[in-house]
Design a protein that fits this description.
This is ROK family protein. The protein has 10 helices and 13 strands. A hairpin with a 5-residue loop joins β2 and β3 (23-30). The chain has helices at residues 35-53, 90-98, 107-120, 176-180, 182-189, 196-205, 209-233, 249-265, 267-272, 287-297; strands at residues 2-7, 11-17, 23-30, 62-67, 70-71, 76-80, 85-89, 102-106, 125-131, 135-141, 144-146, 237-241, 278-280. With 308 residues, it is α/β, with parallel strands linked by helices. It folds into 2 domains: 2-111 and 286-297, 2-Layer Sandwich (Nucleotidyltransferase, domain 5), CATH 3.30.420.40; 124-235 and 243-280, ATPase, nucleotide binding domain (Nucleotidyltransferase, domain 5, 2-Layer Sandwich). The longest helix has 25 residues, at 209-233.
Amino acid sequence: MRIGLDVGGTKTDAVAVDAAGDVIARVRRSTGWGADAVVQTVVDAVDAVRGEAGIAQEDVASVGIGIPGQVDATGRVVHAVNLGVDEVDLAAAVTPLLGVPVRVENDVKAAALGAYALHAAATGSMAYLNLGTGIAAGIVVAGAVWRGDRGTAGEIGHLGVDPAGPLCRCGQHGCIEAFAGGGAVAQRWGRPGLHPVADVYDAADIGDPLAMELRAGVAHGVAAAVRVLVLTADVDRVVLGGGLTNLGDRLTGDVAAELAASAEASAFMRSLRLDERVQLLPAGSPAAAVGAALVGVARDPQEVLARG
């Protein structure tokens, strides 16, 4: 039995996966703030999903953890700012408490593995484009995460697509994230609300000029990311995930229109059939936690196969 955890800024999603790759139990717990609280969250979530599945500790073969921030091959996490973590050797801290092998992976890369295994395994290659507070992608080729020479493959959020575009938090102008990142959109919107990006779309629906501009920018940024992923890695499928996908058809419709406009202007772009290569991650999919479970069982965390 394998356990996978997707540790998010507010919630931790945990699944138990059997030998056939089926999810037999799933629980969600609030995520604590700070390194010690994150360690305790992991332990509590593992205990909770074991209880839900009715499995003993000795029946757990491995635990995999997907978490924001930079993650090295040993399981050390750095700059997980949404969790209040500057640095923690998560694998070393959790392993003796759980008594099973533990491996840690960046959350977007883990989600890419899970999305491939659950929703795109029939394809040769896939990019998982995470649309959340920030923008990043994980690329899976022939069932394995493609990291590049220095582990930065897919870090496309700070790729500039418009030098005259909005200022990004990285200091550049016109980054994909400056257009389509939820944090950047909320900052430019500048109005209070629990769900500022949804508020922007609602206001755009009734003709608010700033909201319409921001909404168009989201479509521009996401479409640019799709083009970059296809033109650089030639992935067969781009799966959209993350919090912004809760916008559903309003998001995907705008992105499809943006891709169609570029296709209309270029025979080459038409030949790529980009609109047919974009897929929305199904609502409620446990892809990130399932991907973490795959990370946990892998012999080499740097070469994880989504086929198990």
